[in-house]
Amino acid sequence: MLSILAGGDTTSASMRVVVYYLAESPDAYRKLFTELTSASLTLPAQWKDTRDLPYLDTVIGESMRLNPGIAMVFERVAPDGGYTLPDGRYIPAGTKVGINPSVTNRDYTVFGQDADIFRPDRWLRQESEAAEEYQERHRRMNDTCNFVFGGGRICMGRYLAMLEIKKLIAILYSTFDVSGVLYPLVQRPCTRTFDTQLHPVDHKHEWTYRNAWLAYQSDMPMTITRRAV
Ligand code: HEM
């Protein structure tokens, strides 16, 4: 029962955010499309074929960074004797503390001044960046984002969740063109045609986001068309 409660809405919320951001970001959509096309997955794709697709990882990681499936704190209680944080601040024994990944995942000192926008390429090495510099930046981003699955005591379904999300997104975008009816995405990567006539684009439209400890997004009208083989 716990697995169903803990594993259902969290995973579906995480899948929804990937679809939403891809519909808003033609550049990321095109890069993912290119990666999936070269991977020529045998559908339904298996885990062994989807686990090492770097851009797929990047898109999913960036989506979950901005919208973690659980968007409030899991409390911890400071132990007897209290606890001193690395920066020297002291937390008295018995104090309840917690970290909300929705907040820490937008830390400008870790993700940069554009932390509030979806930019999967932040996870890739920049041209001007030395290898060690990139490794360190990537490690900090990764460590911060790990709180999406809790810290210390962590999610038991973490690896299953990532397997489900990667397989679903890889299969969905290998089989269908998925575009947001009301979002700025107008270019369909496979046909190179534009969708504006079919669906007037309302650049102001945003989804409805409800945080009820679990995150619920709605009002995301999409067009899904099976891609010609
Ligand atoms: C993207 C999807 C998911 C997210 C974001 C997520 C997140 C979390 C978080 C933040 C916790 C709390 C950790 C803590 O105590 O601080 C947790 C616990 C848990 N999750 Fe997940 N989870 C996801 C998917 C799943 C799935 C698919 C399952 C099982 C099939 C699952 C099973 C559990 C269980 C059983 C716990 C409780 C662990 C315990 O009591 O020690 N989760 N999850």
UniProtKB/TrEMBL annotation:
It comes from the Eukaryota. Its cofactor is heme. Gene3D superfamilies: Cytochrome P450. Keywords: Heme, Iron, Metal-binding, Oxidoreductase. Belongs to the cytochrome P450 family. This is Cytochrome P450.
